Amino acid sequence: MSDYLDYASDEKLKISLAELSLSEQLLGLARHVEDVVKETASVIEGLVEGKVENAKLLYERINGLKNQAEEMKDSTLTYIARLGVALDTATYYKNVALALARIAQLMDGAAYRAKLLAELESKPQLSPEISKSLKEAIATLLETYSQLLSAIRQLSDNPRQSIERAKRVVGGEEKMDAVYRSFLYTIYREAGSRIGKMLLLRDLIDFIEDAVDTARNAAEDILFLAMYRAART
Q: What's the domain range around 20?
């Protein structure tokens, strides 16, 4: 009986240490992806303001950050695959790591479209409606990602607060849907002979909208993990 209790205690400790390590790895990845999100936001804001050099200069940095995020994600997945304990929540940690890497990929795609727009026109002329929608999209993305990062940061120390942060991400996704619909209406109305430019803008907003959706999906996994931890404290 004593040997069984020692084994059970040892397994419980291994699981706790594994969850702590995974939480730290997710936080490191999330902070890295935050840099990708902020750099991409800067590129798009520059595009709106006519500062096209931002898009040309920053894209290579964004692409490099995205590649590093994918390497960090791969490292986390390798860690999960090699765990020597049965971790019931492993799938949720894996899903969050994949979602964070996906956000970095989407930001890279948005930044690349912004770079193409900058190369297409030395000073892209965006209508007030399109500029307003892009600003709203970026503001929503930044706020949504901030809530997701907070949810991940508080997962270990304050799971109940992590739950609240994760729930707020859903509200950001709903707001982004409204911005996205308004943006599509505007670009289709303005298309005319500028179809190439409008298609690039459509791609750009698609990447931002997908990033917010992906943040919501990640938040749902964080919500489960936080509830799981809260129930055990």
A: 2-231
Q: What is the pLDDT of residues 96-147, one digit of tens each?
A: 999 999 999 999 999 998 888 888 776 667 788 888 989 999 999 999 999 9
Q: Which residues contact 71 (CB under 8 A, 6 or more apart)?
A: none
* d(C-alpha 130, C-alpha 44), whole Å: 12
Look at the block and give the residue holding tokens 């949720």: 92
Answer yes or no: are the C-beta atoms of 104 and 36 closer than 8 Å: yes
DSSP for 58-79, written as a single string: HHHHHHHHHHHHHHHHHHHHHH
pLDDT digits (tens, 9 = 90+) for 17-49: 888 899 999 999 999 999 999 999 999 988 888
What is the spatial distance between Cα 2 and Cα 177, in angstroms, rounded to a whole number?
A: 57
Q: In angstroms, rounded to a whole number, what is the distance separating the alpha carbons of residues 82 and 76?
A: 10
Which domain CATH number covers 17? 1.20.58.220
pTM of the predicted model, to two decimals? 0.88
User: Structure tokens of 62?
Assistant: 């964004």
pLDDT confidence tier of residue 157, bands split at 50, 70 and 90: confident
Domain count within the chain: 1
Taking a C-beta distance cutoff of 8 angstroms, is the pair 119, 56 a contact?
Answer: yes
Cα-based angle 15, 72, 62 (whole degrees, multiple of 5): 150
